[in-house]
Amino acid sequence: MTAEAKTKRAREAQPLELMKIPDALLKCKTVQMVTGLGETTIYEKIEKGFFPEPLRLGARCTRWRVKDVAAWLESPR
To answer: With contact defined as beta carbons under 8 Å apart, do 73 and 16 qualify?
Structure first.
């Protein structure tokens, strides 16, 4: 697999069926699809305490738990 293909694959969103698994971990692209928010908006809301904190799994690996994103979607804003 070429470096370009790996980069493209890393940016792709995951299947939305993952939203049925509470402990599944979502990529930012998937969180964007589910919430309708852009990446910048997500991080601004995190900074202000209005969006769930992601898990930092490495220097370049950030994921959100499905249950945290689902709870945010269900909460009154």
So the answer is: no
pLDDT in tens, 7-45: 666 568 899 898 999 999 999 999 999 999 999 999 999
Q: Are strands 25-26 and 61-65 parallel, antiparallel or unpaired?
A: antiparallel
What's the pTM? 0.82
Those residues whose C-beta lies under 8 Å from the C-beta of residue 5, and which sit 6 or more positions away, are: none
54 CB-contact burial (10 Å; exposed 0-12 / middle 13-18 / buried 19+): buried
Q: First-to-last CA distance in the chain?
A: 43
**Looking at the predicted structure, is the pLDDT value of residue 6 above 60?**
no
What gap in Å lies between CA 1 and CA 13, rounded to an integer?
19
Question: How far, in Å, are 33, 41, 54, 58 from residue 50 at the CA level?
Answer: 18, 10, 12, 23
